[in-house]
Amino acid sequence: MALPPPDPQFVLRGTSAAVHTLHFSCGGQERDVPILFSGSENGFIHVWNLKTHRVDAALDGHGRKSVYCVETMGGKDRLLSQGRDQRICLWDLAEGRTSVTDSVFTENVGFCRCSLLKVAQGRWLMAMAAKALEEVQVLELPSKTSVCTLKPEVGAKLGMPMCLKLWQLNCGSQPLLLAGYEDGSVILWSLSMGKALSQLVCHQEPVMSLDFDSEKAKGISGSSEKVLSIWSLNEQQNLQVYKTHSLVNAGISDIAIRPDKKILATAGWDHRIRIFGWKKLKPLAVLDYHTATVHCVSFSDHKNPSERLLAAGSKDHRISIWSIYTQT
Amino acid sequence: VCFIPGGLDCSISFVSHVLGKVCVHGRQEEILSVLLPRLMDLTKSDCIWQRICWRLVECVPDRWMEAVLLGFVQRAPGADVLSRLLGNLVVKNKKAQFVVTQKVLLLQYSHTTAVLQNLLGYLSLDSLRRALLIKVLLELLETWGSSSAVKHSPPEQQQYISKAILICLSHLKEHEIESCREELLTSMMEGVKCHLDSSLPQIRCLGMIVAESISSKINTDGPVLKFQYEEDDEARELKSLLVQTPPFCVVPSLPDDDRNEKADAALPSVLESNKKSCTAAPVMPDDESDAELDSDDDLIPYDMSEDKELKVKAPVYIRDCIEVLAGSEDVDKWETTVKALESLVRKNPAATREVSVELAKILLHLEEKTCIEGFGELRQRAQVAVLTTDPIPVAKYLTSQFYSLNYSLRQRIDILDVLVLAAQELSYPKSHGKTKHSGAQKPCIQLLPGSDSSKDWRRIVDERIKSKTRRFAMGRSQVEVAAVPNEFSSVAGHFFFPLIQHFDRPLTTFDLLGEDHLVLGRLVHSLAILMYLAVNTVAVTAMGKALLEFVWALRFHTDSYVRQGLLSCISSVLLSVPKERLLEDMTEELLETQSWLGDVVEKDPDGDCRRLALQNLLLMENLKKKLKAVPS
User: Fold this and answer.
1) Do B216 and B327 sit in the same domain of this protein?
2) Which of A300, B216, B434, B478 has its CA 20 to 30 A from that of B624?
3) Is B94 contained in some domain?
4) Neighbours of A156 (CB within 10 A)
5) In this structure, is residue A109 part of a structural domain?
6) How far apart are CA A246 and CA A263, in angstroms?
7) Interchain CB contact of B313 with A (< 8 Å)
8) Which residues from chain A sit within 8 angstroms of residue B278, using beta carbons?
9) B460 has a pLDDT exceeding 50
10) Predicted TM-score (pTM) of this structure
11) B299 vs A249: CB contact, 8 Å cut-off?
12) A111 touches chain B (CB under 8 A)
């Protein structure tokens, strides 16, 4: 007899706008307060204290334009945020400060979330959609120098890049980029060579979100249709479809694989969060709390497995926090 | 006929005379069936015999030239054979030229496609004759493009001309098309306008196909005109004429049966090249899942039975529906409301009656907000439901709106369709459950106004007439359903009379008697159906009288669709109004109508009109017989 799905552990209210992006920062020292960053449609980034469940600070750096990506750069003191004002801002939040130290003007009016990858101590690579329609630009941070620009071949008709993921097999190996495009295909780019290694058509509709497990060389992508597509990377660096999974309702806005690679969560347009086992994509739970489309899901990076959380941000202004499958 | 070859100058004019005389007396069949095969064989390889043959035909006197020439053209198996036999006759002989370029193509239209192929292929085979080909094409296009020709010539002739145009186009070469490109373009533009203006779907289709073909010939690299029309057999046949490749050359040694390039030269279908570099071939999941089963078993799934498709709830009250449709921004709710409206209206007649006119107003102006499948049909069904629930006020509203300013043609035609469908529903006995009558064939009106509606009326009237004429001998058939009061009876007048009232009063945006003859045609057909459905109602006599007067006023309308409608009106009157009333109240109108019908049968260019008029005359005859048979 299967148990009914759990209720959220707690619900964060107070953003007063649709929540577009979430990022946990709970992996710090023992005494550090676990933090959740959320970006909303009204341009604010809220810093949530997960002990008190209240907002510690509200950052206003995007001129009231929607913030659709937040990431931390090595700890909760350095934050990167991306907004619809065509800017990517770097924040310094140490010791209670809330100032923007630097910003990058992307000239891109799309919705593609940037992707960060730490390549060395103090050096990051950031991939973002560039000004020209189908291009992706990779910058090195904090120096903001351009590493390469990835242009698809002429006449490829891929459309905008919709989602990006930078990854490297292990520290020191070549960084690679997975990009999902508007025409439903996913391309694996090599940054060092600046060209595409492999292209796979996963969906008939735009790829809304993707995530990748570099250990198993397997990735998953979701689109506006009813199908989740799981693909793998073989030794020749070629992408192949591994399997597909059909959903009850169409539309996925976000996918996240938990850091321990056991489960993954999808945020759906049908207001539901679905949990699957990552090994064989076995459906595990359907979490039905929100009353509007769920825009983002994120897993926490707690060092203690039993404290791990899953957060989901929705258009109904709420962030639900769940504690699920924490025993494994 | 044996001649001595060898350079002797023989005179064969006597033979020509004989040939001509025989042909003109109608004996083409006999003489040419013997002569032609012989000539074909002889001229195949022998140049002298070719010349003899040419002389033969050239010497036929002018007054018999047409008969001989037609005989040759009809019986030659191919354009190249014709070319061998006739040579450059058309260039040398004025009468032959007139017959070939004018008479056969523009004045007659009874010849088959094969004859056209022969003739035009013959013109294309020699450089001297090609100038004539272009001249012919331009003249054909002039006729095709003239609006009076489109309006008044029979559809069969228009089809003939269209076929000739397409065959000419198929024979023309690049440089020739370049030289007359301007004229082609202008004629095409004018012609397509007249054709699309017509109310008959066949003419529209012909216009579209020819225009497409011309456009594809003159714009080989740019964007090409493309219409949307039904691809039936006729359309396909016409299009196949365009891709015919002409036979290779005039070398006599070629076999006679090389005309089979026609249908085989179909354009290769352009396959969409697969632009994606990698086709997604799913790799079967590994079968080593046993070893990994353990770790997955740790994760116990929760109960997911609640995970169903997301549905938006439809409103349950009529007033809620009105709110949603009138102003709501929520598109999901709007969609579900539109889908649920008809059943709600039918289930809550009392509630609907309170808000019927408002609902009718909203539905009339409802536009498609999101892409729902079958939106037009859903809206129409909802309107019919509202109209049948509360007929009188809603009919008043709809008929008044029909003649108001600022409605589109689509909306006016919608009003007509809704009125007719509702009338149909009201006049059927409800005890059958569904509104389909299981008895005699009832009119099957299409829900969406397709171009076939006129055919359906004809079919109904045909069958009704057939059944009536037979029943005279058999007596009345059994009553199949229990008698139920006819709901249409009390409201028939409200549907009918307002529609007929203002037809001659033009408004700034809507002129029934002028440009909007399409709507007039639909109006006339709708009135015919309403009349037909009004059988056994109280108002039927008054309706009949009014309708006959209406028909009388419009009887000389130039649009054949309207005339067909008028004739259906007369059929409906004759069928619905009881014969005693017909005789007593409408004698004069009937007599006038009868004389008009006789006129139509003889002189109307449209075949359907003539047929309908004939049926009406038959009905009148039967009426007379019935009256004589029944003792007064």
Assistant:
1) no
2) B478
3) yes
4) 18
5) no
6) 17
7) no
8) 198-201, 238-239
9) yes
10) 0.58
11) no
12) no
Nearest Cα of chain A lies from the Cα of B314 at a distance, in angstroms, of: 18
* Token output for B83: 């070319």
* CATH code, domain with A25: 2.130.10.10
Using a CB-CB cut-off of 8 Å, the residues of chain A touching B307 are 248, 272, 286, 288
Give B329→chain A minimum CA distance, Å. 16
Distance, C-alpha B20 to centroid of its chain: 42
Do both B122 and B185 map to the same domain?
yes
Percent of chain B at pLDDT > 90 equals 0
Tell me, yes or no, whether A14 lies in a domain. no
Do residues B35 and B184 both lie within one domain? yes
**Residue span of the structural domain in which B42 resides:** 12-220+229-241
- Chain B hits for A286, CB-CB cut-off 8 Å, are 302, 304, 306-307
In a domain, B40, yes or no: yes
CB A33 within 8 A of CB A50: yes
Residue type, A94: A
Report the gap between the CA of B297 and the closest CA in chain A (Å): 10
Q: Is A111 domain-assigned?
A: no
Q: Which of A202, A232, A283 sits opposite B301 (nearest CB)?
A: A283
CA B319 to chain A, closest CA, distance in angstroms equals: 26
Reply yes or no on whether the pLDDT at A15 is more than 80: yes
What does DSSP assign to residue B64? H
Q: Which residue of B has its CA nearest to A293?
A: B310
Contacts 24+ apart (CB under 8 A), B343-352: B344/B315, B344/B316, B344/B317, B344/B318, B345/B318, B345/B382, B345/B385, B345/B386, B345/B389, B346/B385, B346/B389, B348/B317, B348/B318, B349/B389, B349/B390, B351/B317, B351/B318, B351/B319, B352/B318, B352/B385, B352/B386, B352/B389, B352/B390
Q: What residue numbers bound the domain in which A36 lies? A: 19-70+150-323
Nearest to A270 among B280, B298, B310 (CB): B310
Taking Cα atoms as reference points, which of A327, A312, A328 lies closest to residue A7?
A312
Judge if B71 and B124 occupy the same domain. Answer: yes
Q: Output the pLDDT for position B466.
A: 59
Q: For chain A, how far is it from start to end, CA to CA, in angstroms?
A: 21
Alpha-carbon distance B334 to B328, whole Å? 7
Residue B335 C-alpha, separation from nearest chain A C-alpha, in angstroms:
17
Q: Are residues B506 and B357 in the same domain?
A: no
The 10 Å Cβ neighbour count of residue B303 is: 13
Residue B502 in this model has a pLDDT that exceeds 50: yes
Question: B5: how many CB neighbours lie within 10 A of its CB?
Answer: 10
Q: How many domains does chain A have?
A: 1
Mark whether B359 and B424 lie in a shared domain: no
pLDDT beyond 70 at B345? yes
pLDDT digits (tens, 9 = 90+) for B428-452: 766 443 333 333 333 433 333 333 4
Q: Into how many domains does chain B fold?
A: 3
Q: Is B520 a domain residue? A: yes
Q: CB distance A242–B302 less than 8 Å?
A: no
Name the one residue in this structure whose structure tokens are 């990076």.
Answer: A301
pLDDT at B413 over 70: yes
Band (pLDDT 50/70/90 cuts) for residue B292 is very low
Q: Is residue A41 part of a domain?
A: yes
Identify the residue among B307, B309, B313, B332 best suited for mutation to test binding to A, counting A beta carbons within 10 A and taking the highest.
B307
Across the interface, whether the CB atoms of A283 and B303 are under 8 A apart is answered: no
Q: Is the domain of B490 the same as that of B377?
A: no
pLDDT of residue B246: 47
Q: Same domain, yes or no, for B351 and B424?
A: no
Residue B278 lies in a domain: no
pLDDT band at residue B484 under the 50/70/90 scheme: low
